[in-house]
Amino acid sequence: MAERPLSPHVTVYKWAYTMTLSILHRVTGVALFLALIGLIAWLMAAAAGPSAYARAITTLTSLPAKCLIAIAVLALCFHFCNGLRHLAWDMGLGFERAQARRSALIVIVVALLAGAVCLYLLFGVGGAV
Fold first, then answer.
1. Which of 39, 42, 82, 96 is the most buried (most CB within 10 A)?
2. Nearest to residue 89, comparing CAs of 98, 81, 100, 97?
3. Are 19 and 25 in contact (CB under 8 A)?
4. How many Å apart are CA 56 and CA 30, to the nearest integer?
5. What is the mean pLDDT of residues 40-51?
């Protein structure tokens, strides 16, 4: 049996921030799945009655839970913005190096701004949590 050629490994390529965004897209997808499990647990507590809901709210308003909620919101904003970028690529747009770098920068800026606005509305003065 002849030796099969190996696919180029990550060490062959020069690291670029567009690669980082691609990896972050996958990581935020996993984070959103885990956040969905938390959302389902919250909804189940709401359906279980007032005492279960009160325990859930006590847990969700703790500092560690607020940090996890903030991470989930930022992951959602990034995943959404980068998903739009991927949809543009699916349509054949933005493959040139300069366009890919520009769209990566736009994704980062818009995701951070959207995340900041969402977190302010969620945790700021008069926020829900």
1. 82
2. 100
3. no
4. 23
5. 96
**pLDDT tens digits, one per residue of 78-95:** 999 999 999 999 999 998
- Reduced to 3 states, what is the DSSP secondary structure of residue 95? coil
The range of the structural domain enclosing residue 24 comes to 18-123
Which CATH number belongs to the domain containing residue 28 in this structure?
Answer: 1.20.1300.10
Q: Is the pTM of this model over 0.70?
A: yes
